[in-house]
Design goal:
The complex is a heterodimer of chains A (392) and B (246). Chain A has 392 residues and is of the alpha+beta class. Chain A has 13 helices and 18 strands. In chain A, 30% of the residues lie in helices and 25% in strands. In chain A, the strands form 4 sheets. Chain A has a 7-stranded antiparallel β-sheet with strand order 8-3-10-1-16-15-17. In chain A, strands 11-12-13-14-18 form a 5-stranded antiparallel β-sheet, with helices on one face. In chain A, strands 5-6-4-7 form a 4-stranded antiparallel β-sheet. Chain B contains 2 helices and 11 strands; from the N terminus they run βαβββββββββαβ. The N and C termini of chain B lie far apart (62 Å). The chains are: A alpha+beta (392), B alpha/beta (246).
Chain lengths: 392, 246
């Protein structure tokens, strides 16, 4: 029996799944009950081999700290990992991730979380090195070097909770009803090519980025080699990991607006581009040329969360379902309409996504919700998102 | 004399709900009303012509799959894959529908009052007197009639959207007809599709379907006329006949 152990697959993962995301754009926080209720309606889109959640705004008392969630195969793995963390970070608090015993969650790794800040002396070595870069280096080092340790969450004021089980059971296990967040995403997994293991559940997350994903990226090899050029080590062999790194590259590092990033990943076909209006056609041609290696092929629907909001988008021929709704300040996006109507029976508007066209939810006043320093960090991370910049 | 029965579907797992429906039909209840349906799959699977089901709420994927003659009225939206491989019967939806509806449908009728998603009518087919008919009151997204092999697809665009249907219309189509209210620029068409004006026989056949559609959906006919429609037809009945021939 080794179902709780770290198990990096040797080939990429293909899955057909359920996704759901709920956000309050005014930053009002609500409990995890709502997202659990939503994803539970799509029980039969998963098969019990993976469920997970990303929650934003849940650690307001530690909002200036990185919350590092780690799975340990054995308690012995903790020591070497904590020595490694201490090389990068100052530790403020650590504890077991609270859970309630569940009859259906039979095997699990040790689950621990740390609230840390990057050692200031590390930042002084290079003038252009940011805290985020240091955290990425640390996460990559733990996940690739320490055999029994896996970092599955590394953002600020957010956390990923995932494991092997149906998503509603995983949500109960992690006591998500006791957390309050302004943005929740969730995933029910139906792995078809690789075995289910705790770290292989979605969301996949790096820094504040979290990705839940239904489908398959058949361009995985091209995207992996492309990301390799920019120092991203795709160690998990999941197509979901590729999407998270592409968002980090295109938005955080290259400062593309989300609309443009999504266009790079799911652009119109060449035959369609020539019939777009001229400015949009020029943009599409440019994106396809510059970001050819970022093009995602294959059937997928994806929900990306970050501290400022969420982005839902489909492959350009929409081979996976996605429905969205708005109700007041709430934006709800899911694989099925019923996952929305279950938790929000009355909606102002409900619509089916269009292939390649992102559905974007954003905090209206990030400074109010995140505080001034974190709002500034978000602004740096998503620099081009100024009003008007996104219009293309 | 058929008997009525109301079934509370709230929170009932799809398997149990379908067993309840089939047990009620076996007991002779032929008019069923489902209250509070939400996401339960496969409602109406295999049911015969004596059955009529009214659904309040949003039923799950594959509604009326393999259905064999029953009538289903949905007073709300529906999701993906409804009328999958349906054989006979009628489904009327008062709201919108998701993707791949009427997938492989081979008989009966599907009327949607609102809009539909991607790949409507993919692989629809007809055989002898079996001829599936799908009418969409609103608009359709990309790949309408993809690989269509038979039957009739109708898009009415009753809200007069500038774009009644999406791109790649009729890609791989090799049988059946699509009647579209409005004109489609050639670049939106799949390469296997030709366009024409409606002949007398076309209009007669379409008019009869429209009368039934407006009666069943209780929508108002805005005075649809023959010259508002475009007929889309397959240029070849075997477009890929030589694909694997060496």
């Amino acid at each position: 029996m080794r179902g709780h152990r770290k198990h990096l697959p040797t080939s990429k993962d293909i899955s057909g799944c359920a996704i759901s995301g709920i956000m309050n754009e005014a930053g009002e926080r609500f409990s995890g009950d709502m997202i659990i209720g939503s994803i539970a309606t799509m029980h039969d889109r998963s098969n019990g081999l993976g469920g997970g959640f990303a929650a934003y705004g849940i650690y307001p008392d530690y909002k200036d700290h990185y919350a590092i969630h780690i799975m340990y195969d054995e308690l012995a793995d903790r020591q070497s990992t904590e020595r490694l963390i201490a090389r990068y970070c100052l530790l403020y608090e650590d504890e077991s991730i609270p859970n309630r015993p569940s009859p259906v969650i039979r095997m699990r790794p040790f689950l621990h979380r740390y609230f840390v800040q990057v050692r200031p002396e590390l930042l002084r070595r290079h003038s252009d090195l940011t805290e985020d870069d240091v955290i990425v280096d640390m996460v990559m080092e733990i996940n690739t070097k320490i055999k029994g340790s896996f970092v599955f969450s590394s953002g600020k004021n957010m956390g990923v909770f995932k494991g092997v089980g149906y998503p509603e059971d995983i949500g109960e296990f992690y006591r998500l009803d006791e957390y309050q967040g302004y943005l929740w995403t969730s995933h029910g997994r139906f792995p078809t090519n690789t075995s289910g293991w705790w770290g292989g559940a979605h969301p996949f997350s790096i820094l504040d980025w979290s990705v839940v994903h239904n489908g398959e990226i058949s361009s995985y090899g091209i995207n992996k080699r492309y990301l390799d050029n920019f120092g991203y080590d795709c160690s998990l062999f999941t197509d979901t990991e590729v999407i998270a790194y592409l968002f980090d590259l295109l938005v955080r590092k290259h400062h593309l607006p989300f609309e443009a990033a999504c266009m790079a990943m799911a652009p119109p076909f060449w035959s369609q581009i020539e019939h777009l209006e001229p400015r949009r056609a020029e943009l599409a041609r440019t994106m396809r040329t510059v970001y050819a290696g970022a093009l995602l092929n294959g059937p997928f629907s994806v929900l990306v969360g970050y501290s400022g909001g969420m982005v839902g988008f489909n492959d350009r021929t929409k081979l996976r379902p996605m429905v969205a709704a708005r109700q007041g300040d709430m934006l709800l996006v899911a694989s099925e309409e019923t996952a929305i109507r279950e938790v929000c029976p009355q909606v102002d508007r409900i619509w089916h996504a269009v292939g390649g066209v992102p559905i974007i939810g954003q905090l209206k006043d990030p400074a109010k919700v995140l505080g001034q320093p974190e709002a500034a960090r978000l602004a740096r991370m998503t620099r081009s998102l100024a009003p008007g910049a996104a219009a293309a | 004399m058929s008997r009525n029965k109301t079934i509370d579907a709230r929170g009932v797992y799809y398997k149990q709900l379908n067993e309840t429906i089939h047990a009620a039909v076996a007991e002779g209840y032929h008019h069923l009303v489902l209250q509070g349906a939400l996401g339960q799959r496969y409602i109406g699977v295999g049911l015969g012509p004596e059955v009529r089901i009214t659904i309040n709420g949003v039923p799950g994927n594959d509604l009326a799959a393999f259905m064999d003659g029953a009538t289903i009225i949905v007073n709300d939206n529906v999701q993906d894959g409804i009328c999958n491989t349906m054989n006979r019967g009628k489904v009327v939806v008062r709201g919108d529908a998701g993707d791949i509806i009427s997938y492989g449908m081979r008989g009966g009728r599907l009327y949607i009052a609102g809009d539909v998603g991607y790949r409507t009518g993919i692989h629809m087919k007809s055989f002898r007197d079996q001829k599936p008919v799908v009418v969409i009151g609103g608009t359709a997204q990309d790949y309408l009639g993809e690989y269509m092999a038979g039957g009739m697809l109708v898009v009415l665009n009753l809200q007069d959207s500038p774009r009644p249907a999406g791109d790649f219309l009729g890609t791989g189509m090799h049988g059946g007809k699509i009647y579209l209210r409005g004109r489609v620029p050639p670049h939106q068409l799949g390469r296997e599709v030709g366009t024409a004006e409606l002949g007398d026989q076309d209009w007669e056949e379409l008019r009869a379907v429209l009368d039934d559609f407006f009666a069943e959906t209780r929508l108002e006919d805005p005075g649809l006329a023959r010259d508002q429609f475009t007929l889309l037809y397959p240029k070849s009945l075997r477009p890929y006949g030589n694909l694997y021939a060496y």
